[in-house]
Amino acid sequence: MAYEHLKLRKKLYNFSGGYATQDEPERIEDTQSSDLLNVRPLGYGAYTVRNGITRVGNDAGSGSVKSLYTFTKLQNEILVRSKGTTLEFLDDETWTTVPGIPTYTTGLKFGFANDETYLYGSNGVDKFFFWDGQNIDDTVFTMDHTTDTFTATDHGLEIGSMIKVKSSGTLPGALAAGTYYYIVNDGFTANTFKVSETPGGTTLNISNNGSGTHEFYSAGVFEINNNPKGRIMEFFLRRLFVSGIPSEPAKVYYSDLLNPTDFSGGDAGAFVVGEGGDEITSLKVFTSPTSGEVVLFVFKKSSRIYMVTFDSAGLLTIKEARRNTGAVNHQSTLMVENDLMYIDEGNNIVNIGYRENIQNDLRTESTSVGIDRTTNAINFQEACGVYWKKRRMVFMTGKTFGSDNNDTTLVYFYDYNSWCQ
Fold this sequence. Notes:
There is one protein chain. With 421 residues, the chain is mainly beta. It is built from 1 helix and 34 strands. The relative contact order is 0.07.
């Protein structure tokens, strides 16, 4: 429906006012609409939201999509997907290959996490990587080695961006072709910048201006050889936690403090959660609605949920949070405002937080879908979920029993405490 008719969506099942064309849109009643866009008649004067799909971006390329992730970067959101043997991001309605991306093992799901500067990821087989979210083509710059300053009008870079450099002649002193450089805060403006050899490091000292025409371009993905290759990632207390490693299914690694690419530093470590071979299926940060304590929940597939935090001395503590429950996978375990939503092995949608009874928030209209044990006809074992903050909706995809693909989507409307299909 048109923007001015969002009020009607709250009263969608009460369309008693009918189709009103005489008044201005802002004057119509909650039960009326001055247009019938995106609705369809059911007969006998009843209407509902029109069913349909919208393709996101173009569909170029081969291979099936195995993972989707929203990379939150400052005030922007970048939609990323794994498809075939590569990673792509949505660039102005066009799926574009992430620059510098290697060829990945086909058909694998990726785990992702981000700290609003870099996207980190792994598929459990190939190298762990991070990316700055930028895709800038060859851009000419000039150098002032007396201040270590690069100048390029409207360069489009951000603090933390990764670049490489090249030259038609000789590069400025201390710069080398093919090397990753990181944009630092020192002297950063829309037209000037300085670089470091490490993320957030000290400004690189440039010894001369070089010769010829110099250019920089997006460095793309940076691969790391020694980091754990896990498909489950979560940032917690300024560290990156990684699990889902095929050869170590019950183990969690965590990075050095403030250095998410270093898993061998003094504050880095690892721990095994729980007994037996029950695999870890998800990691999620959660803030208790009663105490305000921030913890990391570690989900085993079927046996338990554990609570991980650091005590006042900085020592890791692990406590059992819940028994006889677990999450089927990481892709369908979501933080939704103050609630933590997951799907257990009994095919139930479960909530930890304010809405413990979320599974029973069912509408009574004919479009409702029961989500309890007796009425559920959807297999959530390979489910994926996402929370759309703008509309306060949870989308949870599953497959009808007997189907090979996720072919059904359930939507939870947070404003109305209700599910529909």
